[in-house]
Queue: 2 jobs
Job 1
Amino acid sequence: MPKEPKEKHDHKTLKFPEGFLWGAATSSYQVEGNNVNADWWDWEQKHQPPHLRSGLACNQYNLYEKDFDLIKQLNHNAHRLSIEWSRIEPRDGEFDISEIEHYIKVLKYLKSLNIKVMLTLWHFTLPKWLSDKGGWENLRSPFYFERFVKRVIPEIAEYVDMFITINEPEVYVYEAYIAKEWPPQKTSFWGKIKVNLNLASAHKKAYKFLHQSYPSKPVGIANNIQSFEPYHKHSLIEQLAVILYDVGANHLFYLLTRGTHDFLGINYYFHVRFKDGKGALPEIAEASSQSRDISDLGWEVYPEGIFDVLTDLSDHLPIYITECGIASTNDDRRNRFLITYLHEVYRAIQAGINVKGFFYWSLLDNYEWHRGFDPRFGLIEVDYTNQERILRSSALVYTDIIQHNGIPHSLLRFIGHTIQASEVLEKRLKEELKKERN
Ligand code: BGC
């Protein structure tokens, strides 16, 4: 008798671990609006044309209930957000009680919706008074940060589940001290070193305090981790560039802060190929010139990279993907992004990496720093003319994944297809979602 043909593929949901955190991330300066005491605000008025200034941003300072209701509606079980140091301590050593009370209300509301709160304490902006004193170059900056943390956290800790002390130290150093696109737009070799060391020291001080005072609330940083690769696999010089960049950009800050992390927070956006150039050193091969799939910001869409960085970094600590997202005005691309990147996260978990949560960047369109409001990262679209929030279809795809605690078979159709084939599928998915909504 002929044997029953064995089923080659199972058609089940790709399940994530029980208790996996599903959410999205924002930062205070990018969504709140009117952060007039920050160094960024001051810099924008002096150096940026009006359309590139943050202004009212998404007015989340006033609309937070509306945004958090949407989070609940979308079934997120966690949310990452930050508090704005410059609001809470507008002058050196002077704390504004009404702003602390504001954040108590914000966090309390989130908790009342039964959402796990991951709170970032520093996300790129400084109080103006501190930047006037040299910002993170000032040797006392770690002390100022510690003073801020010790003053404000006891008031809000009961509404927080996990802490991120510092967001992307290396991105800050790069943008502010190398590319000079962000304040204080300086180039100074020693400046860079001082900023790195002071950020590391600030983290360590905050970690010590938080870890001792709130042992049940894990503390970490959110580090921008890039996936590096040689363009020509046989090129030794390109391999060497990969090693140097991987250590410098991905591992250095962890080495400086060794032993002060309860988890690793990973922000993943970049895949970089080094190409042996005309000069002595390899150069970065531009994704756009290689006809790679790129976002509206020219960043390569490369899901396999998240698998690479997860395996590269994994040690005994749990990992949270604290940011990962795409700037695109074409939401079909965001759908595909979510499914394919999460598929790689799933593969990493299957390979034994302890990934415990994923925070899509970003919950809603927001102020993308020196690039203003054009890049659209949101699951939720913001109409800046009237601050209206409009759910994108990707928000619903993400909800579908959350409700399954994994990637349902219906969405797996998108993996492994060419972009053109995916576009046909995306059209179909959109129609299905539309039907579901009606
Ligand atoms: C930052 C965010 C930023 C996002 C997209 C991350 O580097 O933490 O503030 O908006 O990338 O550029």
Job 2
Amino acid sequence: MTVPTLQLNDGHSIPQLGYGTFKVPAEETERAVSEALEIGYRHIDTAAIYGNEGGVGAAIAASGIPRDELYVTTKLWNDRHDGDEPDRAIEESLTKLGLDHVDLYLVHWPTPAKDNYVHAWEKLVGIRERGLSRSAGVSNFLAPHLERIIAETGQAPAVDQIELHPRYHQAETTAVAARRGVLIEAWGPLGQGKYDLASLAPIADAAAAHDRSVQQVTLRWHIQRGRIVFPKSVHRQRLQENFDIFDFSLTDAEMAAIDALDEGDAGRVATHPNDLN
Ligand code: NAD
């Protein structure tokens, strides 16, 4: 099965489906990532704060897969925005990953109360220019944060990685991102398992119609809306299931019915970006 790629605003391309490693315990990461690579995943999303970059690196090294066939993302943690800390942080991440560059490096959260995300973003542009990351992006940036970094640096991030799932669509941020050519990476694409997808009729109905799981239907909805996703599981059977979403399509009516599940801010299941500093 071939995973489609999307073109970023810097000319690089990114596989639309990957494997997310948030809360994958360090001691389980090499096994889980190795299984994902065996299944066919070539895009891995990690972060310094996840504490599992070493396991990701070990799985990559053991796989023998050529570097240019892999897409690796990691993220700058919130306490390292200031001064030259981002330069040190990327070196540490690369050492743990066993790589000389990542494909995508993200400012993990804007931490707006500290008012240092413009500086952090400028540092990531510099890291990209030095070749330590192919692309630079942000995560958890709301519309005003996106507008501000673009206005103050003239550089649009390649992606904004934000919480987005059937009950929470982030209309304002996704509209700004679309206008600015910033692709959306949907984190928590399955709602982090915090609500029952099967209880949502448009998802359950589409799952029955296509003989698929509600998770497959939800991931397919993201794919057809042009988002990048990297669902997390440590179970091989679920990793396989989440990968098998390119041999069926949702109809326009099914897509519209899932679109109508948006509850706005009430649908958020995790931290508000303005509250994490
Ligand atoms: P998710 O929506 O991918 O949900 C993961 C949970 O869904 C799993 O724990 C599992 O219980 C369940 N699940 C997965 N596949 C399933 C299946 N086929 N059947 C039944 N249950 C299934 O949530 P997530 O892990 O938070 O998000 C995905 C990735 O996004 C993360 O691993 C991480 O890489 C990234 N992320 C980024 C941020 C950020 O701040 N940038 C925050 C959270 C997550």
